[in-house]
């Protein structure tokens, strides 16, 4: 292994170009994002007696959370054990899971799920009132709770939104894109700058002043041309964190969901998901000849871990030069009742899964990496926390086990709540932000960026392809200009920052592990059982450092 310490990349912005804040709002805690992570943090902070401002980019329910289909993994069956859940999680994570974080996840998860039920979430139950548990890929026991059949996330989001609406101590600001961190004279987080949309003016930049900031901005799937993530998942939290000096880790581990509904060659952005729970109930992947190709690939066949299935599908697509394979759900009992959302979505595209094969292809789905945190959700920047998909707590390692992400949001939101309940410093005045010397990315370049990412930094990677993608992204970074500061150019610039960091990490990791698959380095190397930490240095260049599993990176605040 040649552990890299620096990557020569074109300079990325250290601040988004924007007008100075013209108005402000104060709260003890500023939570950025309103998915499972953000809303749970808000409720826990309120339980600690703190006032909270939740700021969210579009509407309150526009993140990934409401799209979650499969469910939430938790050990509830007496025949199941936290040890078995931890083992399954660590097998999926291929040596890069942080054992203490996994332990917290599997032991605290059931209690946090019960708390979610107390907050009003209703899950599917049998006639005697017991929670129904199903199984998903990579799990050795039935431990997935679900709601409305395949509408788990919608129910979680509904319950949490109603809980925060009921609390007058939470101020919700919708249509507000957070841009950058504000810090006090000691470098501690003191709030954020944000732009409120739909105000009819261009100078809607304001500030939320707070004693702590929690980033809960979700994933970054929109760096790819096709993703299961909604439009808001543009990696803003990771980009903001990097600009603020935070360390991000494991960014190269992007999980590709094997079965997004194939909508045709020009499909861009969010693609409908066909949950693997369907395969859990017996659906089978077939190639164009009708062969069930997963049977010879892995002992769990169609229920193999996601990366194995995504790679097998990609191989078939390359072998047969076809843009998709088929999912055969015709033999699934009670298909329409158990999977109403999927069936309705397919029918809207003219495909009836009861009688037709479903065309499916892999799409970017989940960021296993993110801003590195300790067990209390603290990042490397004092006063700045990260929770949910934007964070890298260490539970997922090189690949996330299905249905562990909503659970991670529940568990680590509670841990952040406990940390916030401890001493928070008094509000300190923020240092006025310096005007940014860097320009912004022209939103018209977004297609170039996502095409480069999908072509060379997707489920199949090679050194040559990664170098080409890196050059393409550097070209975009060198061309940053006087594009008008606006939500589309801020989002495009965040996407560039995240795409460049992800590509640098994928280039540096010369091995295959979890969901990072290098055709030119097909083996998993023991010497690479390391996290790759990424930060922006003061010139805007990327700096990469390998760090052994178990070594803490977050200093005491
Ligand atoms: C289709 C699909 C199916 C899934 N199924 C499952 C499943 O069955 N089980 C499971 O465990 N996981 C599942 N996942 C993953 C899981 O849904 C997500 O990892 C999880 O919901 C992330 O929650 P979050 O709160 O971190 O982020 P999100 O729910 O994505 O919320 C992020 C929030 O941040 C806001 N935001 C982003 N940027 C900014 C900004 N600059 N300023 C202000 N606000 C901002 C967004 O608007 C949003 O409100 C699925 C994901 C998808 C896409």
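Sequence proposed for the structure above (557 residues):
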């Amino acid at each position: 292994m040649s552990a890299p310490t620096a990557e020569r990349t074109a300079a990325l912005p250290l601040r988004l170009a924007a007008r100075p804040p013209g108005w402000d709002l104060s709260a003890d805690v500023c939570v950025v994002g309103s998915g499972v992570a953000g809303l749970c943090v808000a409720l826990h902070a309120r339980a600690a007696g703190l006032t909270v401002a939740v700021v969210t980019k579009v509407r309150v329910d526009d993140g990934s959370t409401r799209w979650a289909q499969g469910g939430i993994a938790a050990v509830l069956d007496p025949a199941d054990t936290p040890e078995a859940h931890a083992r399954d999680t660590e097998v999926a994570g291929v040596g890069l899971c942080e054992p203490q974080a996994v332990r917290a996840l599997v032991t605290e998860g059931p209690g946090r799920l019960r708390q979610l039920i107390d907050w009003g979430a209703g899950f599917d139950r049998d006639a005697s009132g017991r929670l129904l548990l199903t199984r998903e890929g990579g799990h050795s026991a039935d431990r997935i709770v679900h709601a409305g059949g395949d509408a788990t996330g919608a129910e979680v989001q509904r319950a949490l939104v109603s809980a925060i609406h009921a609390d007058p101590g939470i101020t919700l600001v919708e249509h507000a894109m957070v841009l950058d961190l504000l810090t006090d004279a000691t470098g501690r987080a003191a709030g954020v700058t944000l732009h409120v949309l739909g105000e009819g003016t261009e100078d809607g930049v304001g500030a939320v002043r707070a004693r702590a900031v929690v980033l809960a901005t979700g994933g970054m799937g929109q760096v790819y041309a096709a993703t299961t993530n909604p439009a808001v998942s543009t990696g803003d939290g990771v980009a903001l964190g990097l600009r603020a000096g935070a360390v991000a880790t494991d960014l190269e581990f992007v999980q590709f969901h094997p079965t997004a509904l194939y909508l045709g060659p020009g499909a861009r952005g969010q693609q409908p998901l066909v949950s693997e729970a369907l395969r859990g109930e017996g659906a089978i992947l077939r190639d164009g000849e009708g062969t069930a190709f997963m049977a010879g690939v892995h002992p769990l066949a169609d229920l193999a871990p996601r990366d194995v299935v995504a790679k097998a599908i990609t191989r078939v697509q390359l072998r047969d030069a076809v843009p998709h394979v088929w999912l055969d759900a015709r033999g699934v009992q009670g298909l329409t009742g158990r999977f109403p959302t999927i069936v309705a979505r397919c029918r809207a595209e003219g495909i009836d899964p009861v009688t037709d094969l479903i065309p499916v292809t892999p799409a970017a789905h989940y960021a296993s990496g993110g801003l590195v945190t300790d067990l209390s959700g603290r990042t490397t920047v004092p006063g700045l926390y990260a929770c949910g998909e934007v964070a890298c707590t260490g539970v997922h390692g090189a690949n996330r086990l299905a249905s562990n992400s909503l659970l991670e949001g529940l568990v680590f939101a509670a841990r952040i709540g406990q940390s916030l309940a401890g001493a928070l410093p008094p509000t300190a005045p923020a240092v006025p932000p310096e005007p940014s010397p860097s320009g912004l990315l022209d939103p018209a370049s977004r297609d170039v960026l996502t095409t480069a990412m999908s072509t060379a930094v997707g489920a199949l990677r090679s050194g040559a392809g990664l170098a080409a993608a890196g050059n393409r992204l550097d070209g975009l970074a060198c061309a940053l200009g006087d594009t008008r500061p606006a939500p589309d150019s801020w989002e495009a610039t965040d996407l560039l920052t995240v795409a460049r960091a992800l590509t640098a990490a994928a280039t540096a990791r010369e091995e295959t592990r979890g969901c990072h698959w290098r055709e030119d380095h097909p083996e998993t190397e023991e010497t690479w059982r390391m996290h790759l930490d990424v930060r922006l240095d003061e010139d805007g260049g990327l700096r990469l450092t390998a760090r052994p599993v178990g070594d803490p990176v977050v200093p005491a605040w």
